[in-house]
Amino acid sequence: MRPFNRSPRRVCTALALLATLAGPPAALAQFRPPPATEAQRMTEQGEQVLVSANAALAKGDKKEAEEKFKKALQLFEQALAQEPQSVFAAVGLGSAANALQDFQRTATRLQPVFAQNPQDLSLAYPLGTAYFKLRRFQEAVPVLEQVAAADQPDHLIVHYYLASYYLYVQDGNRAVTRLQRYLVLRPEKLAGNDFQIHELLGKAHLIRRDAGAARASFEKAQAGRAESATAQIGLAAVLEMEGHVPESRALLERLVTKFPQVAEPKERLARLYLAAGDVPRADLQATALMKLGSTPAAHLLLGDVRLAQKQPAQAEAEFRKVLELQPGLLMGQIAVGKALQAQARHEEAIQFLESAVKSGGGSLELWATLGSVNRRAGRYQRAVEVHRRVVEMAPRQALGHMLLGADHFATGQWDQAIEDYGSALQVEPGHPGAKQWLARALAHRARDRAGTQRLEDAVRDLRRAYDLDRSVPMARRLGAALLDSRQYAEARKVLEGAVTLPGVTWREHLLLGYARLGGGDAQAALAAFNQSGEATQEPDQRAEASAGAALAEVELGQVDAAVQRLTDAGPSKTAAKVAEANLPRVLVRRALAKLETGDAAAANRDLDAVDRLGTGKRADLAKLATFARALTRAEEGRFAEATAGIKRSLTPAPEWAWPNTRTLADAWVLYRQGKVAPSRKLLTTAQKKPMPGQPKWMGNLTGALLRREAALAYASGNMKASEKALKAALAATPDDALVQHNLACVDWRQGESASALATWKRLETAVPLASLNLGIDAQERRHEPAEAVDAWRRYLASGAAPRAAQVREWKDRLQGLYGLGDAQGVSPANGVAEETP
């Protein structure tokens, strides 16, 4: 498209002539134009020849048009030589020289004239066009923008030129503005070519990452025409941007088959294969592209394939062929720099790219690559300087901020990296890479803060990171930090969300188990630990899950299972550390549980194991083991050792002890010694300020003391004192069968036989001793040997007969004396009750 510019001189001449002809006859006589100068005469001749040249060109006679353009150029050159500041001559020269594609001549001859007339659009148009054709974009764009601002239909092509440049530098917004203006100004006769403009609009919208607008533009470009490869390629790019990569790939694969001689579908398809890591298929497309012609694009693609194949030397050779075919091509220069860098030839890469920048490379990508190569070469300061230049060149794009973030990320400058990625999100709020890398930078800063005991700050960073990146790794980091800071409820919430995300591993279930355990939900914790073990086949990882499950089992009272797990910790060093830290504690806890049931022997075995394992530097645990051992000594009747052990374990008082623990422990030892009065005195003192959970235990000890007092009084024959103590015990625990039984024994000793017999018969199934006593009453008081033998037989059949040998001897003696055989069909007692102290 070469629109013809009417010369301002011709327009002025025509207007003057019209005014003269319209005036009265007297005016003709009075007006005498000054004689034209030689330069003006040659300019007018040049304009006439220029008109003829354009007419010949319009007829399709290129040879004649070329000859006339050359003649016009010669005339304008001569005119300009005589009058170097002639705007008309300069405009004509620019028009003729541009028509002959002699853009360098236009730039050289018009620049001085334009410098004196910077607002003259007739000069700006051919000069800006020449700069553009010479790829002197830094000079061309301001001049062409000046022309475009005038919005003159004769300068329509300027909007197209500017749009092309903005597409080249990836400035989608400005490209859209120029292309839309082109559509407004273009004459109706050019409407048939609008599809080309819509295709360019689609590409501009892709740069803007506006998939909807891009799709609409490509669909307009395609409407009413046979299927266009370029429009379909644009739609494939839209699908890719929308995340429909398989659909985009399928469309390109169809285009490659339908348009085998079109290069771009092959190139884009190969790029998709490369992005997916499918290098062999990308190689096939690159080879097919090369067969269509040895073009810069083909060599560039083949070089990228060689890079993906880890063949940087071969890639470099391909990229250098690109520059041989098209010297100065930006993408080729960038690619050579990347190939050199891949060969660890960082200095060469830097020198190469620096030269490209100095030679006039104003591309964002070139500057971006130069900075990145400096970063990988360890020249971080230079990388920052270059990438700040990228920010200056494109302040409304995230690119420069992202690169600065990478520079600071590489040097561990987390505050600066976080600021950079935050700036990237400010200019492009939806930028996915900015969110991801901002989250990573926050996670790294959180790690450093946690290392310096700034847990609160670390958790704050990780919360923000998790808001940006709802991924399993980020949830795992936040969950672990919350566990470290003992925020179990929040950790549980985060990790319960994490285990529902794609890519969840055994470790997230493991952390969830600890979060639930810390929150007191041992049953749910055990389920999480078990799920962690099922999610992996690695022995060491299963061992870690098993160690966690052991801790949950302890809280659930499944201490034997926990001890077994911790004893056989498995191959994991982490699990071994968990076992080492917890097995002694669990064994002490089991020993205390055994003591509650009166099994001092089993408690001693666990405490012996603790001695073998050791408690390390955990003084509190060592004191707890000593305390438990002292209680076993009390059960064994070694009261002096018990008292000394209690004193040693509680001086000074450890964290696990209550203020009244010493008092209660001493009261217990005195109780075991049978020293009821001093034990009750200590218990009464402790009851004045009970700790949480103690009232029940104190009540049990009070009842035990009453029963012991009753037993001692009974043994000494003081039935009144025994009765009083048992009634007091029964008032506290009315349903206690043993107390009821013993109170019946007191009644029997006091002559209330009927009441005692009624109680024993009622309790016989619950308290086997009742059968023994019924037999004694039958033999000694009522002299009923057969009834006594039957009662003792029931006692022996109960399975809970501590006096079995003696009672069997009594039974056998009576049977022998009275000839009583074993009765048939006698059933053992239905219930068995344990006797408590």
TrEMBL record:
It comes from the Bacteria. Keywords: Repeat, Signal, TPR repeat. It comes from Corallococcus coralloides (strain ATCC 25202 / DSM 2259 / NBRC 100086 / M2) (Myxococcus coralloides). The keyword Lipid metabolism does not apply. The keyword DNA-binding does not apply. This is Beta-barrel assembly-enhancing protease. TPR repeats lie at residues 53-86, 296-329, 364-397, 398-431. Residues 1-29 form the signal peptide.
